[in-house]
Amino acid sequence: MADIDYALHPIGFIRSELKLRKGAPRSHEGAPDAWIVMVPEFLPALDGIVVGDSLIVLTWLHQSVRDVLKVHPRGEIQNPAKGVFITRSPDRPNPIGLHPVTVLEIEGNSLKIGPIEAIDGTPVVDIKPDLATSNA
Prior knowledge:
With about 140 residues, the chain is mainly β. Helix content is about 0%, strand content about 30%. The chain has a six-stranded antiparallel β-barrel. It has a two-stranded antiparallel sheet with strand order 4-5. The chain has a domain at about 10-65 and about 90-130: YaeB-like (Elongation Factor Tu (Ef-tu), domain 3), CATH 2.40.30.
């Protein structure tokens, strides 16, 4: 393999009422709205985003266990164990979260988005348009 730098650098952080991983909803079911507070150097990258846009927010699930390869879906032991790549488990080799959200408000260096099940302090590594619902 080539000698490539695979480092990720947060472009922002989630500010949410969800403070503990244990209290986060599974998937988007019952997830609250939250804010992305952008790192100032990345503010120009928000140009063109408006209230009502559908976005995909990519996060680094910083409290995840990275050596998990199989889980019981939805954390329910009666469900047969499956490989993490067919589940939305936050525990996985590269814990990248994928969150379809809507922009609800824009204020200074922050976007109010929702719903999102990410906990407070979760690093945001990228934001993309939701191509299924946008013209981008």
